[in-house]
Amino acid sequence: MRLTILHTSDLHANLHPWNYFTGIPAEHGLAKLATLIKRVRAASEDPVLLIDSGDTIQGSPLGSYYAQVERVSPHPLAHALNALGYDAFTPGNHDFNFGLQVLQDFIGDLRCPVLCANILRQNGDPLFQPYLIRELAGVRVGLLGLTTPRIDTWERPDYIAGLRFAPLLETARHYLSLLRPQVDVLILILHSGPNQLPPLRTPEHWHNPDRSGWCSNKSLAGENELLALAELDGIDVILSGHTHQTIAGLGGSQALVVQPGYWGSHLSQVSLELERQGSRWQIISKSAQLLSAEGIPPDPELLALTEPYHQATLRYIRQPIGQARSAYSGGLAARLGANPLAELLHQAQLQAVREAGFPAELSLVNICSSAGLSAGPISLQDAYSLTVYDNTLCVLEITGDILRRALEQTAGYFRQLDPNHLPADPAAVVAPEARGYTFDLYHGIDYCFDLTRPVGKRLVTLQFRGQPVEPAQTFRLAINHYRAGGGGGYSMFQEAQTLWISADSIRDFLVYYIHTHSPIQPIYSPNWRLIPDLAKIYFPDCLGRPREHLLVG
């Protein structure tokens, strides 16, 4: 008997093959995976399970619209998952981004079990059903759900009030001892990924059991436990998510591990060959593959079912919010030196915290995408393209010591460079394991990174209003809640005092700033630089007009 398990994860509210951030068709989305799902089901005479491991309702303008603008039942994602006949769902951290009520409304619309053993009420009872045992053609299959416990670090406290998040390994061991004797197959539905990464992250490189060349992905403690969970006795398959990797088998692990990328880029397919031996079924072989959405036509039935949601989202994001007098460059160009796009984000944050009664001397922002702004009309879609994540805004009170450590962490975004032998491709100056969302740009201080030095020793200048920053000196910092909680490896911010957390998202503040300051003009304060000066070397015409004196605090 062959048991097939199909698995999606990190859909991030991508139903149609459409990129709402760029406004063009895309090679991802659940509608494309629906075609693959139906093909596999049609070709199989034996049972097929379909499971999702979270980060499902947040991450695209469609997700935001149906959480914050128009609440409908069933939720668009629940409608789609129900239509495809999902067998189980485990929530991810981003599913909490709109608050527990939005998540519970979505779950209430689902027609499949919601499994998660390590999200607990204060009395220790699980918030959701911890596990499920299904009998399929006589085979007893156990499904156990777990999610990353660092939701307690990233999420707004009022969004998770009354909840606590138990450690993954401890919870897994507890339930394994209960479940394993009762089942023939044990599947872990896991919203957590590896805490180390191979130098190249194609499925083939995950197969290599030699991990000597792997590097840390700078997870928070307990955030990503996939590698450790894969070594536990008793787990046959791990359907993982969270880290957006493409994994179809993990070399050297006991469990068969899959992870299908993100936004509906891939569908995991696990095949288990089973044979009856006495009173139990035994797995005699197992295999995994990732089915790519690229080139796959979307399923017409799911397209038709979700078309009203798609059209409503397009109308929403195409509404105008202002004008830009000139273009703003984004992407890597905006990470190589002080620039107008970062300044626009800074000014939106500084205005927001000032109006909230918590004026800040410093601001921290990220350039998370390749998007910029063109001269002319600005739409809500443009604001989404600049603020991909639904982060809220915080004000922290930090010390000069925290600031210095955070800056050194940021400088690790780059490789160590020889100014006489710079690569022709500017992307090659970035460290292989680095991601755009881990590089922070600051307003309110003057600083310089010397990239000819090793990581940890690159901050050569740090001043506030013309004076060196002292370790015990305190500042108010406007910062997104993900980074404030230590996300991206910035655990030093967990030492800071939180003074204020916004109810609205940073995107909301950006939209308000553009609307109230339109037409906006690209200006910036040249308060930080790199050695060598990569912005001038690679993008000499992208920065716009500097201005020495801009609003601070």
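That was protein one. Protein two is written in the same sequence-then-structure order:
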Amino acid sequence: MIVIKEHSDYHLTSRCRECQTDHLLIEAHRRSAMLPPILPLLDFDISPENGFLPTELPLELLPDPYYHKWESIVANLQALLLSKRLRGVIERLPTLSTTRLEHVSEWRRAYMLLGFMTHAYIWGGDKPQEVTFKKPKTSIRSICTDLAQRVPQSIAIPFLQVCARLELPPVATYAGVVLWNFKPIFSDEPIDSLENLSTLTTFTGSLDESWFYLVSVAIEARGGPIIPLMLDAIAAARINDSRTVTESLHTFAERLDELGSLLQRMYENCDPHVFYHRIRPFLAGSKNMADAGLPNGVIYEDGSGQEKYTQYGGGSNAQSSLIQFFDIVLGVEHRPTGQKRDESSESEQEGTAPPPRHNFIQDMRSYMPGPHRRFLEHVSSVANIREYVGSHTSNRALSIAYDACLAMLRALRDKHIQMVSRYIIIKSRESRSNTRSISPRAAPQPINIASASKQQGKDVRPGSKKLRGTGGTALIPFLKQARDETGEPAIDAWAKRLLSNGPADGGANFAALGKMGEHADGEMEIVGLAGTWAMDDSEGGLCHW
């Protein structure tokens, strides 16, 4: 009898557990039905395989011969810049209509062409766009006493029209120089391999510039499958499917590690000197660029006669929707640079997607294609991974998988800061004598973001400008804060300690260029061939992640 009773109790307990599990699943499905739906990726022009890269490969040529002049200028961009003929050619260019552009791939190609022409026009001389223009009713050209920074109607009008169609600003954004500016060498091979990629257009014609763009293309392609993976994880969290969430986070962490390895391949074919002095100046925008020769910004001549100066940031990796997707899906909050974490408000919204704030990362969304920007807003409204993991802290496998993703994302940002030190900080601190011409008569020094950064390094006046990136913001404060914020949502105590703000592991080398460490106050110190120097808040970065 005792055995039978125990057996009966066992089955009763088992049935109760099954009923409880069924009840939890039913309740999870009920709550899931009340939540906003997770919309298909195609609604936002996103590929399940390649992510934010276009589903169809970018056009290599606009099919309508009407746009031959645009194609011809960009195809000969380096020759026109070298001969200093570019500005004259663009000023004499007829203003072409955009009505002949049909498929979205044609609009993207036009955006890319006009973006390269605009930046080459602005930054392609000794000074930013010192424009001469005709007086009314006369053919005599004269120099205006207050040199205007203007983009002529021939490219400004169609550029503004194309931008309105694609919901982008009139600058060379990440979308224009990366997402829509590549082709595979062999169409039957994957595009997440750097060995199978080529650029369509560059300012300099150099291998270094192509490689700089293509590393980002490969990262976008390799990271693309993470998007549907993590949307499935969000759906799984809604129905309390912890196994799927855990497995998705494992895959996410492994892929983030691969992206870090891809990023470090930048050193293979992009020389820091070439990048700093030849490539980076062309990518600069018109925002916060007074020291680079654009005190007021740029005027786009739209034919209205009432044009005003406008200021836009230049190309920046913070304009990558993929990197921002990583932050949103993991619940990483980025605050305005310099703003500390508000512990009191954290408890009120723990685990939920952070509300939009006015900061650099948020501002960069306006430099993304409209559908991609709306996708990030949509993901913000459905993101639940951090909340789900936080409410299941007893599930060790789940917590470790989530914290591993944070660790890998922070490691990716660490690698980016290393790259900043090699490509920007060291180059910005070089002595002017290192770049002095060897000819008897020194060559004139161009005025651009590179020369401005050098002057800022020498400027010790109170209030002197911080070294800025192509996006127009002070970089090292931004980069270090973005990295430190990545570890804040960590679940386990060990992960919180590992990913907390402050110095990295005591004896670890931080950069391949020499010994680097971070002090408790956040200062970076590098010991290299040139001696020891500190990475302070006045120095800047490559792009922004």
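Strands lie at 133-134, 141-142, 150-151, 182-184, 197-199, 299-300, 515-518, 524-528, 531-535. Keep this in mind for the problem set.
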